Amino acid sequence: MSQGEAAGHSTAKPQDQGWAWMVLLAAVVLQGLTLGFPCCIGVFFTDLQHEFQASNSQTSWFPSIMVAVLHGGGPLCSILVKRFGCRFAVMLGGLLSGLGMVSSSFCKSISQLYLTAGLITGLGSCFSFQAGVTVLGYYFVRWRTLANAMASTGVSLGFTVWPLLSQYLLDEMGWRNTFLIFGGILLNCCVCGAIMRPIQLASGSLPQSAKPEEEAGSRAEAAQLSNGASPHHPTLQQHTERTICFQMLQKYLAFDIFCQNKGYQIYTIGVTWMMMGFALPHVYLVPYAIHNGVEERKAALLISIIGFINIFIRPLTGLLSGHRVFTGRRIYLFSLAVLLCGLSNFICVISAEFSVLILYCVILSIAMSGVGALTFQVLMDVVEMDRFSSALGLFTILESITLLIGPPLTGLLVDITSDFHYVFYNSSFFLISAALFMGLSFCAVEKKNKLRQASKARLDNPSRYQYSETSTEPKAGSQSPPAVEYITSI
Yes or no: is domain 254-456 CATH 1.20.1250.20? Predict the structure, then answer.
């Protein structure tokens, strides 16, 4: 919460009880409205193509921009939350989302949809979602892990409800009136934001990232430099501006971690590459089914099946991965889930029968549950928590780039070949190669670290590795080699 909001309350409010559970309910609804919404765009794919006489590639830019902005606007949202607080950011996001969809209902070209539904709605969803996740960290301490797991079920609920609602409204009213209604529905993000009232934190429960002394010191230093820079010293003033800019980049985009932390580097590259193929089934599954003779209502049901299974599998996956057996090994579970996602795509290549597509959705949803539940947990494993927010900023920016270009490039390939199978070939290629890259790279890094530690232990205690006929009983002062330490979520 912003310092201005916190200062407005004189007494501390209890956490993990009372109003906190209302905030959690609002967060569940919020994630269903924001993260769940882009999944229904495939229902309108064919109608938008016919309306604007657009190709597959041109039409797919619209959902790609929406999803890319939704993921990539994190640093901007962080600045907004720090300046004005979580409640303001959530409500502003709701207004932008509603405005974007209402404006979309009046669009006269596909390029106008890129601006309204793509950019404006995507940015609004980003503000609402990320600020809604942030506020849970203030309202929950003891039950924070449970709160985040329960909030993520909102995504699965959105995946289930949005496609069915979209198909019903599309059949009854057409896509323009449906987008108009969607604008009103997304305004409910403002209601969720109103519930997330500011909370005064106890003196000992400030987040680790809040360091007022350091912030005050940096501001004083910047002010001193600025005051010392007169018109006769433009070089000093430029140096000050560059320093402030560099500090902002370090805070919200962790380039230094990317260069120094091998685990973060591998994971970020792997997920960025993975996202080239991860979103393709969500965009093209419904058009693919309709193209192969499946009824439109049944085609929309396929996305809902994925969401419904996610409701139950995602929390179970989160609980399973939280077991101490998987401490430091979650990256291998994550790689396995990505690999299963890639392999499942070959089911669609074999047949486009509705029963076969249902089987595909079941397997894909199980694999997707693992990916969704583990993405941020693995990131917490490889990055120290005091730098997590800045590492997350760079992580989301890079993955948003591939989320943006993946569907349009695949759509261009489908336009050239007139073969929807290339959607699933492309998706499998990116997912399988990313899974193998991450799994094998982390395995190699782990082996290298073990060899380095063994070598260090051998140098520290060379007599231990020499042949001796003396007793092998351990001495009281002996030390075992250092164990591998992992940063895990609590």
Answer: yes
